[in-house]
Design goal:
With 850 residues, this protein is an alpha/beta fold. It is 36% helix and 13% strand. It is built from 28 helices and 22 strands.
């Protein structure tokens, strides 16, 4: 494969194995031994360089593969793909890395490090564990009185002379549950009924007035307003609040600059009398600046008895506590060390869930980490981190590149991890990298490293607690940097960069530290790139990144095309490219990105170039385009593509006819393509497709996939597990071939807002694996499928769980359940689309769904 480099690569692998065996012990000891910490830093640097060399080999391999399979008439391209000195140059680089590793490996004997097996056993294999997330345990145990007191303060009638708006700060150290308590108060029925409008915004460390106003507006209306200037935002907020009595939660406020609050307060004063604001903060000074009550509400530590109840709930399976009295005693000692901080209790409890070996519990109780400085919460969180298997540790640390309170989507995070080689190939041949990555996500959620977890049939959304973010940032040290209005620094060891303030980055960080960017592997712009020199600034910036793997531009930027010259950099090794807004053109040279695995382009793209077929490693494509037809020879040639989202393509009438070339496609989502009139017949050839979602396509007739003059249904062998058809008014009948072809695989089938759907096909009775059927807002179909009396009831009565709104109309909201077990309620897919895509502009413009 590597043109005579096999011997060198084998030596490199041997060196890495020898060092890898002691890594776990070295990580544990580094906090107490400065020499070990420096040794790990040296090792980390050479491993990054080794990965860069392997990336170059992979790039060259893929480029040669393209030339061999696709051909090229360009002399420049042929020269680019067939550089003769390549083997000599790479061989020299590998030898230098092997020599550096030999020196580092020789030092490890000085530290008496013990070899430990790499632990991959903790990755979940049972979905039932996913019911145990942070929200399962944070349910305000011991906070009933606090909740009642805060509600009474909010419900108290306003008096003449009272400050407007009323601001109640909730103050307490991190991990006490201030946010959970505040949200519980805001959601209480006896609170909501007093207010016309309820909003919330997480402010976090960097108090940017513009961003805070944008968050409040988005919470109130769903609009992002990223293209509005400060004056326009102020005016819009005033219009929203004018004369309306509102309740606003400003969460996690750190700003101690009174002037910034004084700029926001007049805008919030536009609401009607009786409007209330809850502020959560760790700072008494913030409470004094913002509060209008005599004293802030100081949240105390959780009572010791409540802490024990919370810990036992997290650590034991239901009914098993009484079986292990020795563990109960050890648990009591662990809880005492958590110093009455609920977050610490929850995290350690979940680490021990299902563990019955006393030694494991004792290792937590007796950990030397408790002796480190902290208030109970940081040592506890660090112990939780130390108990993670090595591969999950890396995945967790990489999350520190995202800003605090950043909403994460499971598929997005998995693609990010894949771009950095963090996901291990499964030994199960039927499980691909995306499956493994999703299991990593579920494991971190079950261990409470993520919170605010909400899952639907299509996507899962979650966040990191700010203390978890602090932990990840401290452990990642200088490898991850966040550029904000308050921090302009970046070290030479920075590999991952998050830009919250692009102006600070381009005009302060980049000019002063131009030599600190060569090793950066990922860059995430969370802020708009705007201004007259934005394109030049951006191009100059990217020229500094020689080994970029992930590039994300998630907001409204003012240039229309990706700089053409950037893709001519021979070391450009990007694996993930996300561009969310207003890019009209992709460069023709994008076909050079043969190792690109994920591509997301948002609204504004005029056309997806046909040369997309050269991106032979592409696994994830999120597409918004203005073209009427997807041409053959483009997307249909992407044999590695696993996931395809086609979204808000308002002009699109037809998909490409050569979809049979998508030999690996597992998930297809078509959303809000109002001009789409038909699906290609080749969709029946997608034998690997497992999930099909077609939503809000007003002109689409699903029966167009049927062959012309077809006298009888041809048998197909398909793999569909989940099918959702939502808001397809032009569809009169279901595609029988797709359903019949998935008789041995289809488990969930949802038909909603299809008013002209006439009847259920006969083949529905042959779907042996179908467990869940939903029929909503389909008058004709709902009537025919009415429980017991409908004409089509015999066809569907074998299905264990049926949700039919026709049955609900008859005051019979009981689901058919022959299995006799409880099930999750059906989720409103429309709410998912509106609520769980914070990165993409179009999801905030939806108004079709309740």
């Amino acid at each position: 494969m590597a043109w005579g480099l096999q011997d060198d690569l084998s030596k490199l692998e041997e060196r890495l194995k020898a060092i890898n065996a002691v890594l776990s012990d070295a990580e544990k000891q580094q906090s107490k031994n400065e020499r070990i910490r420096l040794w790990l830093h040296m090792l980390r640097e050479v491993l990054y360089d080794a990965e860069d060399v392997l990336d170059e080999i992979e790039c060259e391999t893929l480029q040669r593969k393209v030339v061999k399979t696709k051909g090229s008439t360009s002399r420049k391209v042929l020269h680019f793909f067939t550089r003769s000195p390549f083997r000599l140059i790479i061989g020299h680089k590998i030898k230098k890395i092997i020599a550096r590793l030999a020196q580092i490996s020789a030092l490890k004997s000085d530290f008496n490090l013990s070899e430990q097996a790499i632990d991959c056993s903790h990755v979940l294999h049972e979905e039932t564990e996913m019911n145990r997330s942070f929200e399962s345990f944070s349910g305000l145990i011991g906070r009933d009185k606090d909740k009642e007191r805060i509600i009474n303060l909010l419900a108290a009638p306003s008096k003449v002379g009272d400050a407007h708006p009323f601001v109640l700060p909730i103050v307490g150290m991190g991990g006490l549950g201030k946010t959970s308590l505040a949200k519980s108060v805001c959601d209480a029925e006896n609170v909501k009924s007093h207010f016309e409008l309820k909003m919330e915004a997480c402010v976090s460390d960097d108090f940017s007035l513009k961003q805070v106003i944008q968050k409040i507006i988005k919470s109130a209306t769903g609009e992002r307003c990223a293209d509005l200037d400060e004056g326009e935002l102020n005016k819009k907020l005033e219009e929203i609040l004018n004369g309306r009595k509102y309740l606003l939660l400003l969460d996690d406020v750190w700003n101690e600059d009174a002037q910034k609050w004084l700029l926001l307060k007049p805008l919030l004063s536009k609401g009607a009398g009786g409007s209330k604001i809850i502020v959560t903060t760790r700072s008494q000074r913030v409470a004094k600046i913002m509060g209008t009550v005599n004293t802030a509400y100081n949240l105390s530590l959780l009572g010791q008895g409540d802490c024990l109840s919370l810990f036992y709930k997290c650590a034991f399976k239901e009914g098993e506590k009484e079986l292990y009295p020795n563990l109960v005693g050890i648990g009591k000692e662990i809880v005492e060390k958590c110093k009455q901080v609920p977050l610490a209790v929850i995290n350690l409890g979940t680490q021990l869930y299902g563990k019955t070996d006393e030694k494991e519990w004792e290792s937590v109780r007796d950990s030397e980490t408790w002796e480190e400085e902290g208030d109970g919460i940081l040592p506890a969180l660090k112990i939780s981190y130390q108990r993670l298997p090595t591969h999950l540790k890396r995945c967790f640390l990489y999350c520190s590149v995202f800003p605090k309170d950043y909403p994460l989507l499971d598929f997005f995070l998995v693609q990010f991890w894949m771009a950095h080689g963090l996901i291990h190939q499964s030994s199960n041949p039927n499980e691909n990298l995306e499956d493994v990555g999703l299991r990593y996500v579920r494991e971190l959620i079950s261990r409470c490293f993520f919170q605010d977890y909400e899952n639907t049939i299509v996507i899962a959304s979650f966040k990191m607690h700010d203390l978890m973010h602090d932990l990840a940032s401290s452990l990642a040290q200088n490898e991850f940097s966040i550029i904000s209005s308050q921090n302009h620094q970046i070290s030479k060891t920075t590999r991952h960069l998050s830009v919250l303030d692009s102006d600070s980055f381009f005009h302060r960080t980049l000019p002063k530290l131009p030599n600190n960017f060569h090793q950066v592997r990922s860059i995430f712009f969370a802020d708009s790139i705007v201004g007259p020199t934005c394109k030049t600034d951006f191009e100059k910036c990217l020229f500094e990144f020689k080994h970029l793997r992930s590039l994300e531009l998630m907001n409204d930027s003012e240039f229309e095309a990706f700089p053409e010259r950037i893709l001519q950099i021979e070391t450009f090794e990007i694996s993930q490219f996300l561009w969310e807004h207003e890019m009209k053109r992709l460069p023709k040279s994008i076909f050079k990105l043969q190792n690109l695995q994920a591509l997301v382009v948002g609204e504004g793209l005029e056309e997806l170039p046909k040369d997309v077929s050269y991106m032979i490693s592409l696994r994830f494509l999120f597409l918004v385009t203005q073209q009427k037809r997807l041409p053959e020879g483009g997307i249909g040639c992407l044999e590695c593509l696993q996931t395809l989202y086609i979204v808000e393509c308002e002009n699109l009438e037809n998909l490409c006819e050569d979809m049979q070339g998508l030999k690996s496609l597992r998930k297809l989502l078509i959303f809000r393509c109002d001009s789409l009139i038909s699906l290609p017949r080749s969709i029946k050839c997608l034998t690997t497709l497992e999930e099909l979602f077609i939503i809000n396509c007003n002109k689409l007739d699903l029966m167009t996939i049927k062959e012309k003059n077809e006298e009888k249904i041809q048998p197909l062998s398909l793999s569909l597990c989940i099918v959702i058809f939502d808001n397809l008014p032009a569809t009169l009948a279901l595609p029988e071939q797709l359903l019949q072809g998935s008789a041995e695989s289809l488990q969930t089938f949802s038909i909603t807002y299809c008013p002209n759907m006439r009847e259920m096909p006969v083949c529905i009775g042959n779907l042996n694996k179908l467990q869940n059927l939903e029929i909503t807002s389909c008058p004709n179909l709902s009537k025919r499928c009415q429980r017991g009396t409908g004409e089509d009831w015999p066809k569907i009565k074998h299905i264990p769980k049926i949700k039919n709104d026709s049955d609900d109309d008859d005051d019979n909201d009981e689901e058919t359940s022959h299995a006799g077990s409880s099930s999750k309620p059906y989720l409103n897919l429309s709410y998912l689309v509106l609520h769980f895509y914070p990165f993409f502009n179009f999801f905030f413009h939806l108004n079709y769904f309740p």
